[in-house]
Request: fold
Amino acid sequence: MTLSIQASYLPADDLGASVSFYRDILGFEVRDEGPLQATVGPPGQPGTSLVLRPLAADQELTDEERATIAELMAKGVHGIIVLSTPDLIDTFDRIQATGADVVQEPVRQSYGAFDCSFRDPAGNLVRFEER
Reply:
């Protein structure tokens, strides 16, 4: 069996702000944008997408469930994505220069990873690892 990741979903309470972050700061392409969700992805990787979707778009959720998820988003513990980069310091400097919310400056982890992290406008953790 051969599998690949086609799309992952992240909550986006302000769809426009989230699209701007991934497009203008991270350089992702906007592949589709509508009132209920937007799809973005890294240039040159058409088979890999990130779907940004407001909680209000999920009709299956109760108001209580939406409130719980919104609380987790506000704490920054709900959505997480890990991206790789060949030059972590350059990536960190470029993103930090935009005023993005820094969570962790570049550090060599005890398990060997060299990484840093930011929060997107919805509070999702966006971690960058040098590869």
Q: What stands out?
A: The chain has one domain: 7-130.
